[in-house]
UniProtKB/TrEMBL annotation:
A family per Pfam: Acetyltransf_3
InterPro entries: Acyl_CoA_acyltransferase, GNAT_dom, N-acetyltransferase
Superkingdom to which the source organism belongs: Bacteria
Protein name: GNAT family protein
Species this protein is from: Streptomyces synnematoformans
Ranges of residues in domain N-acetyltransferase: 24-192
């Protein structure tokens, strides 16, 4: 019998941030980011792929404050949402997120949302790649997966550029208002991306 020893990872990730790339800085949200967050989270075209209603201004303020305080990485459900910013100018372009789905099995869900004004410039792929590297190399994640609407071709492209494989196609598995939505699940193991 093979025994697998799963390392216990307990940390507050705040001291490890920001993450930087050649063009971007990924940092914790601050309450002052509410306006930038609301600019894209209030759009029905963005909310559609997140399976929830568009945010009100008040909800954007709550979300910015909640995300600023999310820094624990230990238990199932712990999450990290980072503001995606250009290194050379102020403002939030979007966000990337990790959610610890199963602490014992070291599995996490990755996600990204970009303001439509900043899409098509490679920012989502660059930010997601940096966060995936952080998840594998620093947080000890074994398997990283993304769930996305099959009609979200931009996110399909991000997954494929990251080297993730399509593991599932769930047909009409979610009801978004009056529309049935189908999902793809993409995933990668830490060994896949090294």
């Amino acid at each position: 019998m093979i025994h697998i020893r799963v390392p216990e990872v307990r940390m507050d990730v705040a001291s490890l941030l920001p993450l930087t790339t050649s063009r971007l800085s990924l940092r914790l949200f601050t309450p002052g980011d509410a306006d930038d967050l609301h600019a894209y989270q209030s759009l029905p075209s963005v909310a559609r792929y997140l399976y929830r209603p568009a945010h009100t201004r008040e909800r954007s303020e709550q979300v910015a404050a909640e995300r600023a305080a999310q820094t624990a990485w230990h238990a199932d459900g712990d999450g990290l949402a980072l503001a995606v910013c250009r290194r050379d100018e102020p403002g939030v372009l979007g966000e990337v997120s990790l959610k610890l789905a199963d602490a014992r099995a070291a599995q996490a869900e990755i996600g990204w949302t970009l303001d439509p004004r900043h899409q098509g410039q490679g920012y989502a792929t660059e930010a997601a790649a940096a966060l995936a590297g952080f998840a594998f190399d620093t947080l000890g994640v074994h398997r990283l997966y993304a769930r996305l609407d099959v009609e979200n071709t931009g996110s399909v492209g991000v997954c494929e550029r990251l080297g993730m494989r399509r593991e599932a196609h769930l047909v009409e598995n979610d009801l978004d208002g009056d529309r049935w939505g189908s999902e793809y699940i993409y995933a990668a193991l830490s060994a896949d991306l090294k």
